[in-house]
Amino acid sequence: MGDSGPRLQDDHRARSRDRAQSRGPLLVAALAMIVYGLCFGHGYTLDDNAALLRNPVVTGDVGLMEVWIREFWGRPISDLDWSSSYRPLTTLSFALEHRWTQDPWLHHGVNVMLYAALCAQLTWVAARYASPRIGFWTGALFAVAPVHVENVASIVGRADVLAASAGLLAFTLLMPVSAGPSSRSRPSRRRSLGNFLPSPSFRAIAGGLIYLGGMLCKESIALLPGIILGWAILLTLAGPRGRDPGQLRTTWASALFLAGCGVAYLLARDHWLSVDLPDHFVGADNPLASLNTLPRVGASLMILGRYVRLTVVPAHLCSDHTYGDIVPSGFFSGLNDVDSWLGMLVALALACATVWATLSARREGMSLKTIALGMWASAFIAYALIGHWIIPISVVLAERLMCWPTVWVALASAASIRCLIERYPGHHARGAILGAVVMVYGSRSMVRSWDWRDSLALHTSSASHCPSAVHNRIALAKVQSEVGQHAEALWNFALAGALRTSFPQPPPSLPAFDAEIDGMSIHERLTNLRVLLAIETTGEWERFLIGMNSFLRQEDWLGARDVYLRYADTWDLPEHTPWATSTSDPQRPNSRL
Fold it and tell me: Which neighbouring-strand residues pair with 274?
């Protein structure tokens, strides 16, 4: 009878923790929906046009079952020898929604809800490894992280969200590992997700199917078996401390089963659609693909540093981080770049965390510190695929790719914060600081999501933040030509051409990017085009204009080309140039100039 009072108090604390653990995910999901509420009114932008509006499976021109024999952009697999994207389940979700309505609001609404669900899922898992309060703040920071805007505001960004959600669910199912009770609170009475399935074999099969489903949404979670294998190694080193009987055998079986599923999928994928980049691959999309080993290592560290900087200080977010914005150099010359040093420090820290996790497991078993270090090691593995450390991928850097690695960064941060609180229990102003960060990041995410409302706003914003990105300049010029801003289109295309001529070397520093031109009219810019593009010799200038004229005609940019022909006299072209001697109608795109 004397123990009934303390036991009732413990039960009350456990019920309070359960209620807090239930409220946290709902609050974080609501926060995500508030931050991205503006997306419901957005249109189709960037890759949405190719993946949805020009995809016959989505538009209904072919049957739904065709989704399995077409790549993400709608082309039949039988007609291709390579494609960067095979995501049939993501395309299937687009197709089902498109049959309900062709307006983009439904696609955007589903995107917002799926992202809110991922944030809630992450919050629940973080609370399991740390505490409900830490889990809430972890989920809130993940929800408002500006680097995730593209995953929500871009319809095709859904692929990363679906894959990350499936990968996290598979991990939670297969790894019922949690930190031991702290000295300051008792563990929750809520059971682990894996306990709801009857046996380890069922959990392994269910986890494998969920993993394969995530791979069919996007292959960004391909290294999940490596993450599970890493935890199996930690459990082996920990011995019987910190784990239930049979958990080690289950974890190893799950890791090997997932590895088998992943290898089988990738072999089938490579058979039908090659994983290696083709010979006709455009090098400007990923300049790392053509580098030798040592320069490629240095460039990959620079990419890691850029990802970290965009995540922590999201001041220069844009839709195009290809050539011009990112120019990899040699290993030693790249050390002059701040991002390279940052990437080197982060890679070294993650490598040390991985080694430290194994040492901690041997000394302390599956303690809170071991779990925190293991989460950082998992983040290292999750990033390896997009970091160009496994195989070259088709995009050198894209903000949407950070969704899966930041899931592990969030979990590692949650476990690390709890570990620090256990050691330094003072409260201070942690809540106020975290609240301020959530407000700042949330405001930045709302502003950035508004940039995605239409293609013109998106590419204009991206040109402002990443002025040297060649592909974005061309995309901006095309949109401007479509909406009738033909002179502006010609200006941006000329900038893209001037920057592109230096590939693969760093683009030139053009007077066109100086602050003085902000006050110049578009007429003044085009009149002084040769000076602003810093083209010195007449021969180079003539070749540049001939190439621009040819591209404008082939791409059917009639309005921008008319402006080009009007300015041709102003640019003092030699008389023997093709357009000066041609008698064909410049309004006809198929005419020879």
Answer: 82
Q: How far apart are CA 593 and CA 590, in angstroms?
A: 9
Helix, strand or coil, per DSSP, at residue 122: helix
Phi, psi (deg, nearest 5) at residue 587: -80, -15
- 388-403 b/e (C-beta count within 10 Å ≥ 16 → b): bbeebbbebbbbbbbb
The partner residues of 70 in beta bridges, in order of sequence, read 76
- Classify 405 as helix, strand or coil: helix
In angstroms and rounded to an integer, the radius of gyration of the C-alpha atoms of the chain is 27
Using 50, 70 and 90 to split pLDDT, how confident is the model at 276? confident
In DSSP terms, which residues pair with 82 in a beta bridge?
274
pLDDT band at 584 (very low <50, low <70, confident <90, very high): very low
For 510-545, the DSSP string reads -GGGSGGGGGS-HHHHHHTHHHHTT--SHHHHHHHH
- Cross-strand pairs, 76: 70
Tell me the CA distances in angstroms from 109 to 43, 99, 153, one per residue in order.
Answer: 12, 15, 10
413-448 residue pLDDT tens: 999 998 888 877 766 667 788 889 999 999 999 999
Q: So what's the pLDDT on residue 65?
A: 92
Instruction: Tell me, yes or no, if the pTM score tops 0.90.
Output: no
> Phi and psi for 101 in degrees, rounded to 5?
-155, 145
d(CA 434, CA 439): 9
In this structure, the chain runs to a length of: 593
First-last CA distance in the chain: 100
Token look-up 């010609």 returns 490
Place of tokens 């990419």: 303
